[in-house]
Amino acid sequence: MSLIFDITKRRTALNGDGLVLREVATGQEITYSELNTRADLFAVALRGALGRAQGDRVGILTHNNAAFFEILFACGKAGVILVPLNWRLTPSELAPLLEDAGIDVLLHDHNCAELSHSLAASRDLQLVPIHTHGDAPTPGSYQALMAEADPAHAPVRDDGWAAEDTWYMLYTSGTTGIPKAVRQTFGMAMANYVNVTQTFGLSVTSRSPNFLPLFHTAGVNLHSMPILISGGTVDVLPGFDPDMFMAVLAEGKTTTIFAVPAVYQALRVHPKFEEIDFGDIPYWGSGGAALPDAVVELFRSKGINIYQGWGMTETGPAILFQTDDDATRKIGSVGRPLLLGDVKIVDDQGRDVPVGEAGELLARGPLITPGYWNRPEANAKTFTEDGWMHTGDVARCDEDGCYFLVDRIKDMYISGAENVYPAEIENVLAGHPDILEAAVVGVDDTTWGEVGCAFVMARPGHTPDEADVLAYCRERLAGYKIPKSMRVLDDFPRTAAGKVRKHILKAENL
Predict the structure, then answer these.
(1) Exposure on the CB side of residue 284, measured as CA atoms within 13 A
(2) What is the tens place of the pLDDT at every residue in 436-488?
(3) Which of 232, 321, 406, 411 sits most deeply, having the most CB atoms within 10 A of its CB?
(4) Cβ atoms of 485 and 437 closer than 8 Å
């Protein structure tokens, strides 16, 4: 059994006076020593007042705040599994997840109070409100439970946390509509820390904004958790607000950023994008979905190289990222395997494909989840006996060892006996001057079997014309890849990572 030692306790011994968390909206600042103390106190409450035993699950519905990280580390100390839940879901969508995870204690902030009470109305659920910093605590609240806890009764785990033990569980965003809880272990957190640190040069001087949802792996792990382990500082925003985000960057303290493509799309049209000098931020990362070449080139024109990578909730998540050279020479690549991870590409018979050919991407290593909670059939389908995980992504590898994502297997459609990968078409559409973002799905056609339907979002002040856009595609794509129709939408249905939920576009025939 490999051991991981109490992270906040060890970090306190190394730089306890260092600033670890700043809530941008409230101004609250927390040192490593304070984080460790608060996590100790809530660990007492978990095992005492809340009656949680080791291995029990506790749910949380909250927008981004410093308390989330205190609670996460408290769960590590108490041996309790935290289950962050998607506050964008309805009570009818969340109720099955509570049942699946066996949750009867739910923490929530004021933003999720109504949703939490709706859930409690139909099941036996103890609610624990998390107050905004500065508000007076009420009985039974997170802050009150900490104030009542006796630190002398803190759970003692000085023998270490087993690397294979589950720390928290994240439900997949559900681009296919069926969420599964992915077990996240202490060992996965440390493997991701190693991978992200060696890619982005993290240290005690690192500082990054936290704004992606904390019920998603990127919100926790890119780059907040690795920075917390490194001894750096995280600026916590309530969510992605373009104005607040740009104001944080304008302070000149940020050293590294990770964002999904939808965020980069929003930044490129922000009024202050041309005003702010981003030259002091050396590391910009992107993942979660394909970043269009046009966006990469635009940021490069401002002296910014965006490091593209690939990962999944199931991979902890960081397993592929570009190097410095890749970011400039291999636009469109998602990089190479990081230190603690391995990948390969296979055909539908499980055989390795030749260099340059497309196939399914498989992954393995210490950052891979041990499996889904309560999903034995999914586990059997996803994980091979020799340790490889099926990702469901189609990729190819060039002669230099750089990987390129082609598309999701489930997104591919067949038109006139030809395989069509929407991501290629979407990348072309994103280069059109009137289009901000595009999503292509296959729809039934009596002649060709399936044809492409392009859904697009217009750039501010522009109006995409279907005939013009399709003519633009004809100059850049083979005939069978050209969409047969186009629809303009104000926005797309998305997952927490900003991925377009294509099954909704297709099912509702928007």
Answers:
(1) 22
(2) 999 999 988 888 888 999 999 999 999 999 999 999 999 999 898 999 999 99
(3) 321
(4) no
Question: ∠ CA(152), CA(154), CA(159), 5° rounding?
Answer: 120
Identify whether the C-beta of residue 209 lies closer than 8 Å to the C-beta of residue 258. Answer: no
**One-letter amino acid for residue 78 of the chain:** A
The CB-based long-range contact list for 197-201 (8 Å cut-off, 24+ gap) reads 197/226, 197/230, 198/338, 198/339, 199/285, 199/307, 199/309, 199/318, 199/321, 199/338, 200/256, 200/283, 200/285, 200/307, 201/256, 201/282, 201/283
For the chain, domains (ranges, CATH) are 3-397 (3.40.50.12780), 412-508 (3.30.300.30)
Q: Which amino acid is at 382?
A: T
Instruction: Tell me which amino acid residue 32 is.
Output: Y
Report which of 286, 208, 213, 220 is spatially closest to residue 251, judged by C-alpha positions. Answer: 208
By C-alpha distance, which of 336, 340, 331, 343 is closest to 320?
A: 336
pLDDT at residue 1 greater than cutoff 70:
no
Q: Which pLDDT belongs to residue 509? A: 59
pLDDT at 231: 98
In DSSP terms, which residues pair with 183 in a beta bridge? 169
Provide CB contacts within 8 A for 474, sequence distance 6+.
482
Average pLDDT over residues 72-79: 96
Report the candidate in 226, 230, 274, 283 with the shortest Cα–Cα distance to residue 254.
Answer: 283
Dihedral of CA atoms 10, 11, 16, 20 in degrees, nearest 10, equals: -150
Q: How does residue 158 score in pLDDT terms, banded at 50, 70 and 90?
A: low
> What pLDDT, in 10s, does the model give residues 88-123?
888 988 999 999 999 999 999 999 999 999 999 989
Q: How many residues does the chain have?
A: 510
pTM assigned to the model: 0.88
What is the rounded distance in angstroms from the CA atom of residue 421 to the CA atom of residue 411?
7
Is the pLDDT score of 177 beyond 60?
Answer: no
In the chain, what percentage of residues exceed pLDDT 90? 77
Q: Which amino acid is at 65?
A: N
- Please give the backbone phi and psi of residue 456, each rounded to the nearest 5 degrees, phi first: -130, 155
SS3 state of residue 12: helix
**CA separation (Å) from 363 to 195, 275, 388?**
15, 41, 6
